[in-house]
Amino acid sequence: MRKKIVEESVLFISIFKWLFLASCIGIIVGLSTTVFLKFLGLGIAGAARYPYYYLLLPVALFASALIVRVFAPDAEGHGTERIIEAVHRHSGRMKLAVVPVKLAATVITIAFGGSAGKEGPAAQIGAALSSGFSRLFRFGDRDRKKLVICGISAGFATVFGTPIAGALFGVEVLFVGSMLYDVLLPSFVAGIVGYQVSAALGVTYFQGIHCAIPAFSSYFFLKVCAAGLFFGLSALVFIEILGLFHRLSRRLTIRTPYKGLIGGIILLALSFLFSTRYLGLGIDTIEGALAGGPVPAASFVLKMVFTAVTLTFGGSGGIITPIFFVGSTAGHAFGSLMGFDTALFASIGMVALLAGAANTPISASIMAMELFGPEIAPYASVACIISYLMTGHRSVYPSQILALAKSSSLAVPTGSEMRDAGNIHLHLRRKTVSTGVLVWIEKLKKMLKRSR
Fold first, then answer.
1. Which of the four, 22, 53, 197, 440, has the lowest number of CB atoms within 10 Å?
2. Residues in Cβ contact with 269 at an 8 Å cutoff, skipping those fewer than 6 apart
3. Where are the domains of the chain?
4. How far apart are the first and last CA of the chain?
């Protein structure tokens, strides 16, 4: 009896402790995200007053890269990746210098047309402040990691207005195939409190369009499954394009700010060739696709290229908003091609591409419910899971830890980062694959060797 009393007392104290600490983080991140979004809004509005503001893109990317390089190299990239890296490699230690640098670099990048998102910087700023909070009160490594994860959750929730999906995203994005259940409570509390704080301070959010969901039929279910395959392949292409431009950028033996000049010139050339709709956040195009309006069929591919150039050639910003753009326009294109409801498949595509590119099928499925209503949940969840499986052991976040292989037929090194898991030579577990399939694969290998 005494042991039970002690156990319950410890658990009660732990719950109270994390309710309080997570609420503190939620308030901090709610405030910081509000400040960031207000500055970003002012920057975008100020630049938009001039019709050819995007002509300054080379200068903007140069300035963004220079600020990051001089004042806080840890602020480089698209935000969330750096937080994952800090949690896994540095027990959540992050420098406070990241906060003003990331804010300034991101506002400069997006305001002048860089194709990037706002959630990564918001999460990175929130995580850096959470790390500073833990350092101020001298928390240990374990508690610091929890607080930084709360910062991710609250940052995601406050940017998109999806507190439940945001809370789960912060926990799910760290590992592929596993979740830290001991961080669920503080993540939920931080996400909900952060969202309430930012909403109270005047931040407005996208209100999802509730599409008409047809009655269940085997034909409609097959449509959704086919869409999941398409979105998974689209996510895979996006990951590979990001990797390609990252390698191209690394091969340039010049300093990063000068890469920003090159990246800006490339973006200008692409804008003149195609359209300026692929610059900046692209919220108008996302909303248009979700409403079923006219959207160019190649929009999702072009946005991939614009985003890859921006983020690998000196720009600063997040990756999730571009993923939403790619997903919604890919869904619209798929619906148009197959003669389906474009608005419905744009909505499913928006979350399914997130599931595949970021390896977060659970939070993406929850986001579908928060944005588009519970009726879409069964179909969006199926598409999210199929998309997640289709991308294989790859991610827009290479620092994610692979906790579980996506198929028992593949031998992959669990416990390693996704950048390592994706580069190794995967081999089949012979006991779990039929002999006929193995024979076919062996024949294919021989044909490839002969072709070389």
1. 440
2. none
3. 2-200, 230-390, 405-451
4. 73
